[in-house]
Amino acid sequence: MDGFVDYGDEQATGMDQLADHGLVLMFVPLFEDWVPPIATFATKGAAPGKVLSELVISAVIQLHNHGASVLAVISDGAGNNRFMWSQLGISGKLDSTCHFIEHPLEPSQNIYFICDIPHVIKCIRNHLKKHTYGMAGDHQINFQHYVTLYETEKNKQLRVVPKLTRAHVAPDNLCKMSVCLATQLFSRSTSIGIKVYREAKVPGFEHSEGTEAFTKIINDLFDALNVKLPSQGIRPGSEKIQVIKDFLALLNTTERNTVCNGLKLFASQMTTEAMRVTLLSTLDIIEYLFGQGAHYILTAKLNQDPLERHFGLVRSFGGDESHPTVVNFT
Description:
The protein is mainly alpha-helical.
């Protein structure tokens, strides 16, 4: 990004420095289709967590003064965002979890915190690829099973998992950013493929029951946390609510087992804590909205896809120019 550092009235330091990042705050109504950016700041590097916490609270207050009530703060799992969480008292630690704060102007209203679930799924994939093994409850996951599945099928005309490519199991730095590649790896068809070849006694799929089960669990969790269509919306008594609860219980059990037995988690500690906060917040938001009379909940509203699309539009304004200016953002 080209321009000068400017945090508005919240932070006057560093305004003579050239900026290289853009920070955007966006308001996403839960039951409307419009998604306006409400603030844009030029920054040098990623904005510090302390500054982010001040900007978030300021945005909450400004929105309240204009008749909009903030129910959740959504971000990815970057270090500065996690520091912003800690500045506001948010913690995903197993024995001291705090997933919401009190609204500064509405004491009866909580503000929940959520880590972008597509980002979380990518982090799980990257962690398992790096460490090969991981545990989820009683399920032992071996990333090599995914690699073996691809190698077994890559030259076949008829495939059980036709979408599986080398980029899914050996992503380069660019492919690691793709949500689609991560979610397709943890798909129902991948789970079925592992089962088919194990039952066919194909070498390399021995003891793959844990990988198969975990793959299906992540698939079902992502489906529950990424509902986009009203016809598929989460309603009272929905099985998707139980899917979220079951995964939260699995997450807690796995971390306790890890502490007691020295086993490897299926995700990093940072990702595990972010997931715990996200799942607790999502469950509370669903319960709150049903209590307010909502007929269904679209959980895809609780991720940062609209923000990603906004950045894509900003980049497109410059044509072949890869460095948008502050003017592009306005």
